[in-house]
Amino acid sequence: MDVLSDVITVMRAGEPRSARLAWHAPWAQQFASVPGSAGFQVVLQGPCWLIAPDSGPVPLAAGDIVFRPHGRGHTLADSPSTSSAAPACDPNDPPVPRFATGVAGAAADIGAPATVTLCGAYQLDPTHAHPLLHDLPELIHLPAHLGRHPALRATVDLLATELERPRLGTDAIIPALLDTLLLHILRAWLDQHPAPGAATTGWAAALKDPATAAALQAIHHDPARPWTVATLAAEAGLSRAAFARRFTALLGQPPLTYLTWWRMTTAARLLHQSDTPLSAIAGRVGYTSEFAFAHAFKRRYGTAPGRYRRKG
Q: Which PANTHER family does this one have (predicted)?
């Protein structure tokens, strides 16, 4: 797979959740901090405000998308001055359905125009968090612009329709749309970064650098291949020394360090999600010896592969 697809595959755990809500002023809703998660808010209709402890109040308008990649809490409200009396929403609470619709706010004003939002949360596995995720800011705000990010807007429309009018197949469609939404949000952010004049290191810069991106794509496409710095440099179209310098400068680690990390991360996912024999997993991540694989895995995770699998 390509790098971004692999990032989503390894870091997501459990089932995503989403809801379509109509809010009638005055209203305010807290969303709890949930370590090991990421959350989003999409404004479908009307204005509102996002209030977060790590930023000032952010005005939102119809079409705006907000992504909280590190699971930090925040409040959504009709005004920064409206306080929330309701309990904080936590997607891990058992009464919270996976997919829902609802109406909230002042019952007397149900007939008045409402602010309509889509909210959602993804459960992530912190032990497999890709370094690209660490590069993301606490708050990603994608304002609505006519004609901008059309695929992202189309995904939002499809998701809103499925939540508002569920039909046969909705339980299969919504998780797929939530994964698609996450990919489009990350694509939109990567397209805008690094911004002109900003630091040109990190994953956004690396994925836009043709040489580094080619090497990363090669690693992710075939982690079993016996890669060396020289063979990766050939994929990048650079000399061995120039490639190693560029890769390390952009990503903060040498090429083979990242290769080993990705191989062990892939192996850990296969151990948890499949009953593939250890020898086959070793081969899929570039080890011809099961003993050498077990040694490398234990150095990374502090336990043998078989015990890691049994602990689940």
A: HTH-TYPE TRANSCRIPTIONAL ACTIVATOR RHAS (PTHR46796:SF13), HTH-TYPE TRANSCRIPTIONAL ACTIVATOR RHAS-RELATED (PTHR46796)
For domain 203-311, which CATH number applies: 1.10.3720.10, 3.90.320.10, 1.10.10.60, 1.10.287.130? 1.10.10.60
pTM of the model: 0.89
Measured between alpha carbons, how far is residue 109 from residues 77, 91, 105, 106, 114 in Å? 16, 27, 8, 6, 9
Residue pointed to by tokens 């630091």: 199
Angle between helices 3-11 and 170-192 (to 10 degrees): 130
Amino acid identity of 23?
W
Low-confidence stretches of the chain (pLDDT beneath 70): 94-96, 105-112, 146, 197-199
Helices (DSSP H) in the chain: which residue ranges? 3-11, 131-135, 150-164, 170-192, 203-208, 210-221, 229-236, 240-251, 255-273, 278-284, 290-301, 305-311
pLDDT at 145: 81
Asked if 3-192 and 203-311 have one fold, the answer is: no
Q: How many CB atoms within 10 Å of residue 177?
A: 23
pLDDT of amino acid 217: 97
pLDDT of residue 108: 47
Could you state, in order of their start, the residue ranges of all structural domains in the chain? 3-192, 203-311
The CATH architecture of the domain made up of 3-192 is Sandwich (2.60)
- At position 27, the amino acid (one-letter code) is W
Q: How many whole angstroms separate alpha carbon 285 and alpha carbon 288?
A: 9
Identify which of 183, 238, 181 has the alpha carbon closest to the alpha carbon of residue 209. 238
Specify the pLDDT at position 311. 87
**Count of CB atoms situated within 10 Å of the CB of 1:** 11
Q: What is the pLDDT of residue 138?
A: 94
The pLDDT tens digits of the residues spanning 14-25 come to 788 899 999 999
List pLDDT tens digits, range 114-135: 899 999 999 888 878 899 999 9
Tell me the two tokens of residue 260: 């080993």
- DSSP readout, 149-166? SHHHHHHHHHHHHHHHS-
